[in-house]
Specification:
two-stranded antiparallel sheet; 9% strand; 211 residues; 9 helices; single chain; elongated; mainly alpha
Length: 211
């Protein structure tokens, strides 16, 4: 389940858009725009960042109130965060296969959004789930429509009469094949969850030191 309605969306003081998602009986405000997903992926791929630094940054990118989230979920914060990430950013794959890569498909996404939906770069401010739904419905004559087709289509059975058709299909499959890292969102999920585990332990240590 995504955000319940437009009343569950808002804008922070810094101009970032958030949506409120139901999670274990609570409403959690999350920066869920497609632009956030782009940044999330790049942070997850940044090998210059240490694991702790990456995790802390990801938590700040995702949650309007990391401290409030920690207070609400306590020892269950890490598992709650994994659940939230799966809900907010866990689409765009088909049976474990990647169908979209934000970097490799960047130009295709821009052209498709304009051609099919009349959207300029403002589409990046839409919730990630909405953008992925639009991508999934991309008409066959758009760049993303063609890319998704050749990433999912079954290869024609070769016969002595269709050799050129099969060769053309194979060339198209290779052209649209994704070559990047397999699961940056999964890496982001793990890093952010690890960050919450560290926050939980630090909070527990702080409470013990006061006792």
């Amino acid at each position: 389940m995504g955000p319940l309605s437009s009343s569950c969306r808002g804008t922070s003081e810094d101009g970032r858009h958030w949506s409120a998602y139901p999670l274990r009986g609570r409403m959690v405000r999350v920066y869920d725009s497609f632009r956030t997903a782009l940044v999330l992926e790049r942070v997850a791929r940044d090998e210059l960042l240490g694991t702790a630094e990456r995790g802390t940054l990801l938590v700040r990118l995702l949650l309007v109130s990391p401290e409030g989230f920690m207070a609400e979920f306590g020892d269950d914060a890490a598992s709650a965060l994994r659940e939230l990430l799966a809900e907010v950013f866990g689409i765009g794959e088909d049976n474990g296969r990647r169908l979209v890569d934000f970097d490799e498909d960047a130009e295709r996404l821009v052209v498709t959004m304009r051609q099919a939906y009349g959207l300029g770069e403002e589409y990046e401010e839409l919730p990630f789930r909405e953008v992925m739904a639009l991508v999934a419905l991309s008409p066959a004559d758009t760049p993303m429509g063609r890319a998704i087709h050749y990433r999912t289509a079954k290869r024609p059975k070769a016969t002595k009469w269709n050799k050129e058709e099969v060769r053309g299909f194979d060339r198209a499959v290779e052209h649209y094949r994704l070559k990047g890292k397999a699961d940056p969102i999964g890496d982001a999920n793990a890093s952010a969850s690890a960050a919450f585990d560290r926050l939980r332990k630090a909070s527990a240590d702080g409470r013990r030191s006061k006792d």
